[in-house]
Design brief:
By secondary structure, the chain is an alpha/beta fold. Helices cover about 40% and strands about 15% of the residues. The strands form five sheets. A seven-stranded mixed β-sheet has the order 3-2-4-1-10-9-11. The chain has a seven-stranded parallel β-sheet with strand order 21-20-19-22-23-24-25, with helices on both faces. Helix 9 links the parallel strand 15 and strand 16 (about 345-350). Helix 24 (about 600-610) crosses helix 25 (about 615-630), helix 26 (about 660-675) packs across helix 38 (about 985-1000) and helix 31 packs across helix 36 (about 950-965). The longest helix is centred in the middle third of the chain and has 26 residues, at about 490-515. It is globular. It starts with a strand and ends in a 6-residue tail after the last helix.
Amino acid sequence: MCGVAGLVNFDRDLGAESVSAVLRMIDAEVHRGPDDWGILLPDFILNDPNLTGLLQSYDRRHIRTYPGAPGRPFAVLGARRLSILDLSVAGRMPMGTADGKVWITYNGEIYNFCELRNELCARGYTFNSGTDTEVILNGYLEWGTDVVTHLRGMFAFGIWDCRTRPALFLAKDRFGIKPLYWIRERGSVIFASEVRSCLASSLVERNCEPRALRGFLTLGSVPTPWTTIRYLYSLPAAHTLSIDDRSYSIPAPRRYWDVPSVSSTRMSLEDSIAKTKALLDDSLRHHLVSDVPLGVFLSGGMDSSIITKLAAKYSASQLTTITASFEDELLSEGKKAAELAANLGTRHINVHLDHRDFTENLDRIVQSMDQPSVDGVNTYFVAKAAYESGLKVVLSGLGGDEIFWGYSHFKRMNYLSILSRPPLRTAAAILGDFANKAGRARLGKLKFLRLDGIIGPYCVLRGLFTPSEVRDLLDCDGPFPLEDLKPQQFTAETLGRLEIELYLQNQLLRDTDVFSMAHSVEVRVPFLDHLLVEHVCSVPGAYKLSRNIQKPLLARSASDGNATASLVSKKGFTLPMHTWLRNTPTVMEVIDKSPLDLRASRKLASEFKAGRSHWSRLWAAFVISASTDQRLLADFASDGQRRKILFLASDLYSSVGGIQAFNRNLARALVEATPSLDLTIISLNDRDTVSDRFVRGRANFIACRGHRFPAAYFGLRAAAETFRMKPDLVIAGHMSFSAIAFFLKLCSGRNWVLVAHGVESWNPKNYQKYLASKAAGVLAVSNYTASRIIAWGVNQRLITRLPNTVDGEVFREIREKRNGPRPVIITTARIDEVYKGISTVIRALAKIKTIYPEVKYRIVGPSRDITPLSKLARTCGVERHVEFVGQLTDSELPLALNSADLFVMPSAGEGFGIVFLEAMACGIPVIAGNKDGSVEALLNGQLGRLVDPNDEGALVTAVLEAIGGGDRHLDSQYVRRRVIDAYGFDRFRNRVSGFLNSLGSWRE
């Protein structure tokens, strides 16, 4: 078990700062691996004079290098090691291949590493250690990224492969037993085993992520992939992530395994029991592989008792069992655990806990969390006892209830399944409203049925705070961050899958990892062997449910077919938290200083004191407050003004274009500039939910295109949402929505602003000109558009320039360009729009090809009919030089731009031209027209060439000079730097924030 950390520079030459950052990261993970450490860096960086002084105090035997080259992406990897297999220095990480071109930093245990090692030896691989780390490394050389499908165990690792194109490969085990966090920001990728480690790099900004807090308050844990830090993600279970210079723009985690469904081939109950027993035995034998002594967490319940019995059966040495007990006999299972330990002859340690233990360790408990949680305190104490007894490895019965359906709510599924169907769902939610007001907390959880899809009924079972309570505590509203889980009916099988993907991954396993590793103890979970899980999940649900027997399939498998009483009775490993919290004044004091809404926090505390609220709700508020005090959470305190915006948009995702990109960026800027914002987006032409990671879970999104009369539905929903949410501001995202926004103003008194783009602003109807003058403000994408609006008679003081933006993380210069015919000219546009000037470029191509016979002109974008332009190309004799590429995906577009030598679009009616920004951010020289908003995009010619769109000769001259020229505005780094400074997203977000602040309270 270890801690991993790494930093890969793609566009950011940090030099010695990279090494310093990774050293800080592994120092922050010393508790995860106190036995050894190591760091890997490229050899050329050793020449950095700043590095010499930095490394003077470090043992050079822990520093390894690989052959790198300036100007190419490079990595710095770090590792902290808790030695369990091959305790010698041969197991030191990062570990590399003999040629030094592939390196790994790894956290976990691979239980089939011996079998894999033998297989790889048979294929000609040699080994220099007895570690599973080297098995993964050689397995990667043999199977590539598919190595994860061969691994049986728990793991989180990063591999740096610089054999050809340098690439980072991150991977996480099938259930998320081991954590792995990553962030892509400002030209670098940073990853680590803990969020606090990423923050220790000092390269990650501490911006709050509201989705994490809403998810935590709703379910008691932060839902994957979010973390409490904006842009810092948890890699989901059973996913890998490959990032190289090309895929950096749009990194996309890939799932390699999924929880199986019930098999269509029905296995008999007897065969299912026999196979379960065989797989469970096999899992235990594999989980006992270790070069250090092992122990077992024994709570006295069924799951830990079975693990203990099997471990004692197969262990070659005496086991140590650890149990926590306390005064409350209704909760404590210490006596039962002691009896079982005596029968099995284990070395038994009973940790007797009382209120004093809790208060003395309270600060350390919060510090150990890494991410907020309402669970895991029990693991903290038993892991502490394991460490103090000299153990490094402990087995746990974790996962048994999720895999074998051990929770009582599995037996109530029929009732909840019926309630979750319309129209009973609405009625039940209303009943929950009344029950909540009457102080009937348990029945009040039916309010969760207002959440869409399967997440609603799931929250009835697992939910902590209802959406309205979350809104009051955070002083802001928004959708539940996992509302996109909307497919199938809510059945027992669906519940089992959610328990694995949400409760097990986000709470139980995460808590177990951080609290055990806080004491440098590795916890293994034999029930989560994927071969066992695949079998158990594939058998009929009836085998796993019984009125009289808890977890009948497991009980019968562990007792030769008959479930005995000793395996049925279970209390669970639960601490007397209610009593402890009531007797800890510090908790109330911390909550009283909470960044949560003061009135809502005090109400929560009074309900707890009166016995009307479960302890976990108060503990959640305390965790947030204490974590903020300890700077484990970014500050998110509201300023007391809950702001609400209704955004009326044409579309964001259904098509491509400048307006769509602007709308997406505006939505993102709104939620980031105002973290406590309640944003509702009504989109006329979109069909689906939010598809981008920045806005998903931050805004209520209403798509209208799927309805029979979308325009009518759009207007009705706009009116309904205005009266429901009472927005402080309505944004009319298109000129055609000005009438709706003005009508809403008349009916509700809500202020509204207009967004003016390009073509739609050239010749508006007279009533639209009038309505624009009645808006509280007008956002014009360019001075060119603003001048047209002023000509209507709109007061200039109402107009604010908000130019388009470009995300420099997506559109960037790729160092290794594609090979092929040169030169390549490219245009990205809606091909049917004549004013884009594509026909002018085609005509000019006839002269350009006389100088450059291999010239290619790639036209990228959607089109209803390319026939006219194809015919023009034939007429001009350039048909073989023109390529109609069609519409590209978000990940393909940056690659297409980087394949070109020159971007040309001599438009004559462009409002601004986001496509110019995208090309320049990729370091591509640009030629644009000088008659429209393109002039501003190119900063009046500072960033590119401006030509008369009607002068074909001028265009030819400009293209020929650009292809062979070397002006400073054709220097790629200069162009990129200037365009990001002027139009980068940070600048755009600040402009949006400034505009909102200029409106004061937004209300009249």
